[in-house]
Amino acid sequence: MKKFKLTVIMTIFVLMLAACSNSNNEADKSETKEKANDSTEPTTVEITDANGTVTVPVNPKKVVALDNRTFETLADWGIELAAAPKGLLPADSPYADDEEIEDVGMHFEPNLEAIAGVNPELVIVGQRFSGYYEDIKKLVPNTPVINLNIDVSEEADTPGENLVEGLKDTTVTLGKIFDKNEEAEKLTAEFDQAIEKAKSAYNEKDKVMGVIVSGGDIGFSAPKTGRVWGPMYEIFGWTPALEVEDTTSDHQGDEVSVEAIAESNPNWIFALDRDAPLAGVEDKVPAQDVIDKSPALQKTTAVSKEQIVYAPEDTYLNESIQTYSELFNNLAKNLAK
């Protein structure tokens, strides 16, 4: 009889333990489910581009990138592209030889239909392709198209500020879209540091000359409007060695005689080699060779004291925030000598 009572008691005890265990398991499952629901990541994000506010998907899979200020950032973050203008990609870009990427063609003769053909989830427009923004929106009406163009044209009142804020805004925007906020923050911090270094290194007195070397010729990159160098006069407070009227942002620079450049006697020459990153350019002459072999420039302070700084070789095609950080750090290093 005692054995029977003991068996009954043990059975009841086991059943109670099982019930408690089941109850705890259900509670754990419910708690886990609630936590999962709480941590659900947003599937879209609102960003502000050159045209307003746009809702875009987070981590889109089929991306078309047309803005060469974004290529290096996207590549560094491992973002795959469905289509891009391959002729605008630097030779060392991982996208350049990727046969899976559809070629949109060059900006002066684009194949915009290739964009629609890949059924993109996002199209990134900017710089050379910014003029096709409306055309692209019509081609892919159900796809978000963002315009990251930065206005450093002749019409811009503050090209220097536009360039700095534009590069930072572009980086932050890409960070939000591709869930790379920490990486974007790091890039913008490094960019700000490079700007401060270059500012501090300039003595506010030396005369500066920006030039663009293309086809063996030296073009004038004017303060404010000149390609690449122009906005930097505002950013760093440079004293221009030469100022002329009716200047442009032409990609080969303005036509100013080498003699006029020499007569201005710049303390520093900052040079962009336009041809260096371009494929298919025959008989390229490096910018350094052109400047070194120009008789008119040899007596200038910049050449005689070897105070010449060259932009990174791929700058003409790759105007990313990384490129400008590298350039500004190089300026700071040379100006501080």
Automatic annotation (TrEMBL):
Ranges of Basic and acidic residues compositional bias? 26-38
Which SUPFAM superfamilies would you find in this protein's record? Helical backbone' metal receptor
**One GO term of the cellular component aspect?**
outer membrane-bounded periplasmic space
Q: Does the keyword Cell division apply?
A: no
Query: Where is the signal peptide, in residue numbers?
Result: 1-26
Q: Which residues form a coiled coil?
A: 177-204
**Where is the stretch described as Disordered?**
24-43
> Alphabetically, which GO biological process terms does the record hold?
iron coordination entity transport
Query: Pfam families under this entry?
Result: Peripla_BP_2
Kindly give the membrane topology term recorded for this protein: Lipid-anchor
Transport as a keyword of this entry, yes or no, is yes
Q: Where is the Fe/B12 periplasmic-binding domain?
A: 62-337
Subcellular location per UniProt equals: Cell membrane
Return the InterPro entries for the record.
ABC_transptr_periplasmic_BD (IPR002491), Bact_iron-sidero_bind (IPR051313)
Gene3D superfamilies (alphabetical): Nitrogenase molybdenum iron protein domain
Q: Which UniProt keywords apply?
A: Coiled coil, Signal, Transport
Note the PANTHER family from the entry: IRON III DICITRATE-BINDING PERIPLASMIC PROTEIN, PETROBACTIN-BINDING PROTEIN YCLQ
Name the family the entry cites.
Belongs to the bacterial solute-binding protein 8 family.
* Protein's recorded name: Putative ABC transporter solute-binding protein YclQ
Organism of origin is Virgibacillus dokdonensis
